[in-house]
Design brief:
The chain has 270 residues and is an alpha+beta fold. It is built from ten helices and 16 strands.
Length: 270
Amino acid sequence: MNMKQIIQQLEGRRLEFKETLPEHADLAKTICAFANDAGGELYIDVRNHPRELTGLPEEELVTIEEQVSNIIFDRCYPAILPEITFLTEEEKHIIRVTIYRGSTPPYYLKEKGKLSGTYIRVGSSNRLADEEIITELERRKRNISFDSEPVMDKTVNELDIESFKQEYQNKTGEALDIQTLRKLELVKTLNETEYPTNALILLSDDKLHRSLFPFAKVECARFKGITSEEFIDQKSIQSNIAIQAEEAYNFVLRHINQGAVVKGVYTVSR
């Protein structure tokens, strides 16, 4: 893809254009946000309205490259290693700063610290990350998922998973014993005690499910007519997630008016 094609793209999660070198803080926010997300490219000296190359003096390229490198090194933590290249199109020079997805997130502004200086990309803008997002970034650094994190409010033996056991046996023909839970990584052993993971809590009908994950539910509704002003029927499905989808499907089936016509020797549903 040549530069003319690149600059016609919309700014977004992985792409940003700047007519001049951004203020130090703004540049650092963008670099941290790219590193915390999927990486990205920043093009310097591309005018936005209208979108066109403005071009940098060739003798200033090295100086601006050093400025960019120093801002990233001085203001971003942990260390981010940018790839800075010079591009020329129609004798106009621009700088491309490429940032790859970081392996040790969260990345944040040194002077603000982790809680007040971690940024992520939302569309074409940089947004301050909240504590939940920062926790998720830290999980990514440890290469673990939210599902696999242990919950130490109850041991696995204290958790009500009877309906999940029954559902598992109905679907697989096998018993859901402690060995199977270990094999599925639904339990974690800490200090010689086995605790359920977040995934197993979601698969349970235990009170802990509703207290920890009150929004892990499916809301179903049928309305009168084509507006949402009047309900004919509604249901909040708060059971374990192993059967939520099936219950929602059954709700839909209950409200489908289906007829059929005979064409020749075939019955055609409609």
